[in-house]
Give the backbone structure.
Amino acid sequence: MKKQILAIDDSKAIRFLLQTVLGKDYTVVTASDGCSAMYWLSKRNLPDLIITDAQLPDMQDWELIEQLTSSGIYRDIPVMVISSLDKAQVDAKCAEFGVVANFTKPFNPVDLINAVQRIINDTRVSPAIVAHAS
């Protein structure tokens, strides 16, 4: 059975890109906003990785990431951030929330694939392993 990734981004192009580059090896479920993602998760879906933008149209910046990383249910699911925000701000926030990797838009899809593989294949992954992967 393929490992599952939840990809959350309001950009249809980014969701399509993630589904295209990761879909061969993983089951990729997409959501366009935080509420849709939380609804999907509330249906007892626990993906192996969550890839999300820090800015979502229906939430404050970083709100979804804070909810995921502080939740007793979801905190053990690795979170990767893809963002167009200032790199220094993203690095600081990712360190604060224990995000395992972050990429700045635009990003190299090959680098993203490699980071995803490292995260999913290493059940002991910690933020220090692939943080600042851009």
In short: Strands lie at 4-8, 27-31, 49-52, 79-83, 101-104. The domain at 4-130 is CATH 3.40.50.2300 (Rossmann fold).
